[in-house]
Amino acid sequence: MLGLMIHAHPRLAMPPETRFVLECWRRREEWGDLSTWRLRRDLGDAIVGAGGTHSNFRDLQLRRWATRHRIVQEARTLGTAFGIVFDEFAKAHGKARWGDKRPAYFEEVDVLLRLFPDAQIVHIVRDGRATVASLKGMPWWPVPSTASMATWALSEWCLQRDAARLPADTFHSLRYEDLVRDPRSELTRLCAFLDEEFDEAMLEPHKVRDVVPERKTWHKNLDEGVNASAVDAWRKRLDPWEIGLMEQGLGRQLTRNGYLLSGRGTRPPLRKRADYHASFQRQRLDAVVRWRREEKQSRAATTPVAARLTSGQRQLAGS
Q1: Which residues lie closer than 8 Å to 85 by C-beta, 6 or more apart?
Q2: Tens of pLDDT along 205-224?
Q3: pLDDT confidence bin for 198, thresholds 50/70/90
Q4: Contact (Cβ atoms closer than 8 angstroms) between residue 257 and residue 125
Q5: What's the whole-model pTM score?
Q6: Which of 119, 91, 97 is nearest to 21 (CA)?
Q7: Residues 128 and 152 sit within 8 Å (Cβ to Cβ)
Q8: Which residues contact 301 (CB under 8 A, 6 or more apart)?
Q9: Residue 103 and residue 155: Cα distance in Å, rounded?
Q10: How far apart are CA 16 and CA 66, in angstroms?
Q11: Burial class (CB in 10 A: 0-12, 13-18, 19+), 142
């Protein structure tokens, strides 16, 4: 919903979710220093999904080989190659600026800032109970609710970490509940962060719903316009022990973000509590180990990373 709100702005483009940024980042050594057209061609192939890679490039509705050609001709850094794709999407929609969204990015803010040094990060947080309830119904999320709770806890931990260390003009957070209850105020604040003027079109994200692939049927609620009907749906969708586990184990994180505890849950089974704690510790450890490894690799890497074509987007926004 937030992505469509941004895309509804006359100057901002927000594409549907793709998968090539993180995947190609983690394979970056395959393309070395990008100094030859063959290396850039191979990178372009990976980005546009040639050869069976799962980039979801097709969802952008761009011309595959024309985009690859531009990557081969212009990309001298990894970030520039990625930026070319999103720039093409923005141009196709008549927009001056572009962004990108994917839930997995909450763990990868450092990677995004390496790729796009002038990026502005927007983090939306939702009541963890509502998040877990929503994930229970997603066909692409076949994990137990205790693991979903751990993922929400990790995202909240990352939110606090990023908010404390990143400049105010680089990182902005907002709550889903505030957005659906008072979209005008929240979007006005978001636009101020982005150095853009608020536009009324942002209040009607369903009008740009066509950028969301039809196969993603779980987004059908977007057709109904902005409403707060899903805010408290977790009260019926979660089992009593799930509410109890979240409010007992994650009560501090919930209240820190302004979510009141309901007291409606029951005491969770010991096994469920153990599953949650083990999953959270594992996910957080995996993230920290990966961050340290990638920081070390970045210092020794030969692949040029930082995008060049995106420099000046903030200045452009004020022109």
Answers
A1: 18, 20, 47, 48, 57, 60, 62, 67, 71
A2: 999 988 887 777 666 777 77
A3: very high
A4: yes
A5: 0.92
A6: 119
A7: yes
A8: 28, 29
A9: 9
A10: 19
A11: exposed
